[in-house]
Amino acid sequence: MKNKIYASIITIGDELLIGQVIDTNSAFIAAQLNKIGVWMRHRVAVGDQWDDIWEALDDSARVSDIILITGGLGPTADDITKPLLNSYFGGKMVVDEQTLQHVKNIFQSTNRPLLESNYKQAEVPDVCKVIPNKNGTAPGMLFEKNGKIFVSMPGVPHEMQAIMQEYVIPLIREKYELPVIFHKTLTTLGIGESFLSERLKDFEAALPGNIKLAYLPNVRSVRLRLTATGEDAAETQCLLDTQFENLRHTIEDVVVTLDDKTLDQTIAELLKQRKKTLSTAESCTGGALAAMFTENAGASQFFSGSVVCYSNDIKKQVLHISPEDIATYGVVSKEVATQMAANVRELMQTDYTIATTGILGPDGIEGKRVGTVWIAVANNKKVMAEEFSFQYNRQRNKEAAIKFGLNMLRKLILED
Amino acid sequence: MKNKIYASIITIGDELLIGQVIDTNSAFIAAQLNKIGVWMRHRVAVGDQWDDIWEALDDSARVSDIILITGGLGPTADDITKPLLNSYFGGKMVVDEQTLQHVKNIFQSTNRPLLESNYKQAEVPDVCKVIPNKNGTAPGMLFEKNGKIFVSMPGVPHEMQAIMQEYVIPLIREKYELPVIFHKTLTTLGIGESFLSERLKDFEAALPGNIKLAYLPNVRSVRLRLTATGEDAAETQCLLDTQFENLRHTIEDVVVTLDDKTLDQTIAELLKQRKKTLSTAESCTGGALAAMFTENAGASQFFSGSVVCYSNDIKKQVLHISPEDIATYGVVSKEVATQMAANVRELMQTDYTIATTGILGPDGIEGKRVGTVWIAVANNKKVMAEEFSFQYNRQRNKEAAIKFGLNMLRKLILED
């Protein structure tokens, strides 16, 4: 039987401890390790304090085989990680010629002079193996001690990510015999965690011991994750697939996406497959739908554009919404949402459109309560509108509007 | 002299350790504690594993006075935090009548039946003080042991945030005599960390011992943070203000925002103060500028709308960009950017506009290299366009385009 291989992550930097930045590196590293079957044991964040970093190294080495460290490698005076690692592993600082050349090249190619602090970036403990950082000046460093490996990486996300993918993951795969771990996820919309768990009681009770179900609730949606562990890859995958189909079948009516895909990604795939186009008309979502669809490469294959009509004048002048209807029914109404969808489709000549108008808060308008949202979707045959009444703050009302609106659009596309 | 009060955060949940969610709770808690002068010692994330949670409690209690715990309190079977805390603090589980009533009310108000798992949410260890959770069903819990306080909170961000702000922060303020800690920040654009540090060498060397300078680099910008600690609030604040003015003065030419404000927030403030309006015409930014401006309440005071013209047809049909100019100069050109800005300003009748057209990648078009971006800003007197050549991936090219574009707009507004 293969041994479980454990990893810890140490993130270093005062900015993490005073809450000035959100730690996205840990999630990236954890996801990468998880995919190859390394078990994350724990994750620690410490400030730029010698004793605390030292203790985090000791604590992590006690419970884990692999210790991954990010942050604290910049050229400025607040970074103490490199001298600390040097001292922790009993080395002395030397200039790494290859790194120095790399740093020089970076500065030459951008016509900037090399500063003293940049020279320092090429200094490394002589007891480490240098890991090249093609995207930046601070190199990664690999140490070994008592059979455990320690990798120090820069905190800049894309620099760390390249080092993880191109160096650390292959190294771990080569060094350890790893057990098998697979996940499959799906996302539900419009049903609470406890109702879902009630419906899944029997399913969960019948799960084999090596498969685990987890609930990840978010605004009006719940992501369900099935995790299978085992020895044999094909067998474990097959068992997971079977149980996943059971799960999906049990709650088919509330499942909106599979495999960690978001609703907008699912819609993008459908539209690209079918060679159809999309436009949006956004009042309360304020461009968030357009920004979401254009986030990923290839968006130009299906996304034409959007009219963000935040003010009523723009609704009238650009989208030709009837001023009488706005006066009669209010700007947050079925009539306005329907016209927005139909008119933006006409203006942008797309196969599908989605339109939003609502009151996200904090203040109400037109005597309507905060959280009232009308959403319309349209294709070449019809326009469908629906009213929602969310009960959250501004940000969560927007999130909910986006999710339910995208789900209306998804269903309309699947009807065709 | 006041003692330093130390805190640790423990976040619980397998989803953190497999990288499926990004931990935003820790940053929120850390920022709240920091503001009142509590020193964050470290922060640990562990999975839903009995021994690991137990060890995290022991480790945190060893170094900190206050231990804040989030996550693991949901109604479903994967949550073991509550029974563990019960056992850790040697209590027995009892039903809390007030919580039960609260849970019943929530379900009644939304016309949903109460499930068995919901009853369980009202069960708490008899050795804790229950902290009401007005936004959800899982209550917070306060424990005390050996003079240290432990607070367990739900992992749902807005539920945890309300408990922190309304209960935990006031409790800590009342219980401890806290030292003084203040921060001031500013953000620079277009200068690298090492060049900045070179320019600030003398400033940094002359800083008094209780003031610390930190660098937080991001895509093309660096946030600088001055932190002052002391005994007397007024004195510490005054010392910090003086040094901050020195800092600002030393690098005045590259400072773009102050006080942790983002560029879009700074622009929003300027426009609201001056009662001016804004529209955007977005090709490569795809609605991200509009979404950014409409994120915050009060956006309708200055933001009118946007035309997201992702496809060339929309550029021609909706924004009336000359097809000849697109054919002659290409869609990523000074001519197109300038016309986009001028025409959207005309269409939306706003005081200012910003227009973007560029190639973010991964693929180039028109024989131009990835990262080429033209941005134009306009007011009633002129249109100004500038070309940028970024060298990152798609996402970072967009971030850079947004920052430099917003800075062009900020400067144009300040000229008036």
From TrEMBL, chains A, B:
Which residue spans adopt a coiled-coil conformation according to this UniProt entry? Answer: none
Domain of life, per the record? Bacteria
Pfam families registered for this protein in UniProt: CinA, CinA_KH, MoCF_biosynth
Q: Where is the MoaB/Mog domain?
A: 8-174
Q: Which InterPro entries match?
A: CinA, CinA-like_C, CinA_C, CinA_KH, Competence-induced_CinA, MoaB/Mog-like_dom_sf, MoaB/Mog_dom
State the HAMAP family in the record. Answer: CinA_B
Family annotation (PANTHER family): NICOTINAMIDE-NUCLEOTIDE AMIDOHYDROLASE PNCC (PTHR13939), NMN AMIDOHYDROLASE-LIKE PROTEIN YFAY (PTHR13939:SF0)
The record's comment on protein family reads: Belongs to the CinA family.
Write the protein's name: CinA-like protein
Lineage of source species? Bacteria, Pseudomonadati, Bacteroidota, Chitinophagia, Chitinophagales
